[in-house]
Amino acid sequence: MPNGTLLLIDDETSLRQMLARVLELEDYTVLQAPDARRGLELLRHYAEDVLVVLSDVKLPDGYGLDLLPRYKQVAPLAEVILMTAYGTIPDGVRAMKEGAFDYLTKGDSDDQLLVVVDRAAEKARLQRRVADLEKKVGAQYSFDSMIGRSGALLQARKLAERAAPTDSTVLLEGPTGAGKELFAQAIHQASPRRSKPFVAVNCSAFPKDLLESELFGYKKGAFTGALTDKKGLLEEANGGTLFLDEIGELELNVQAKFLRVLETQQFTKLGDTRPTSVNVRIVAATNRNLRQEAEAGHFRPDLYYRLAVFTVPVPGLNERREDVPLLAEYFLQFFAGKLRRRLRGLEPEVLEQLRRHDWRGNVRELKNVLERAAILADGDTLTTDDLPAEFHYLPAAPTTDEASDNSLRTLEKRQIRQVLHDTGGNKMEAARQLGIGTKTLYRKIQEYGL
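== Sigma-54 dependent transcriptional regulator ==
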């Protein structure tokens, strides 16, 4: 199997052909050029294929050290090895500083040349794999990957796209399970920081006494068990984006430290006396109304106003019901591939039930429902039998008299019927939500003929 493509630029024909032959014996494909002009032409044409450029320093129409930036500009993922008959230390230092992989003296052994070329080619292959992975991640978390055509989703996406290229702090507001982290990832991927880390932190997932040390890090001996220095998540995200999910869960003392990060890009680790500087973009998310939390004294108003520089309301699934069929088809095919099953689609009755469902868990709940249905499906099409129990328990429609009757008895009957529907007929859960005992609920069901 070929090792890859190399570009060899040298005006000495016999030496160039000899080196090409040596490299070809190692299963490399070697492109040859006698001068810089022809070499750059070949590099432009084969930029996607060339792993390594081997260039003489003294060429008839250019100087290798001056040409180095042009080689890197045309093929940024390729490595460049400069060769010279009369090497000098200053030239070698300059070559390495400007991005050359190595600086070799002509006449060295072929074995040494092959070792350097192999190492350069391996580095170039690795860089290509990383670039491919970054493209896949970028495509997976881009705005274009968002599924749906509803007005509410498109409006939220439009706002997020406007904020993405800036360094402004963004606050994503929306119910749990609506896809706020997907928005945060898309903002990061559409920003100049896309090649730097994206670090996500769920503030409700950490015990409150540990969240501060996880965010800011600590010095050795800061507390019992701090045996070594530890970088916090803010430092891990340096140069990139820190996503704080459920930021409303931050303790007030942590909020004060985080406010300083937003204002100065500095913080002090636990047990340290000197501030640490970072360059981090903050994207935060909450399912609470932070303005009301601030007015009630549960959240610092000054931090709220720093976070709410640019607010994006992420709609819940009930606000974008027209997107349910698209999302359902996507999740069905996703889980079909994961389970290695062939599932062609959903019956119309299934889509109708999905449209009518009250999606309190939003997109996350829909995803879970489709995963379960894909596992249970016997045929190649999802049927209503594959849906969870709550989709089979539908309350009887109120009579005409009931619809116009607002007596206390009728209102109570409607409420019990609705809660039984929402809980899929689970009597214990329905009683808990209604705030009555289970025995009382059974008596009411019998009394109202439910």
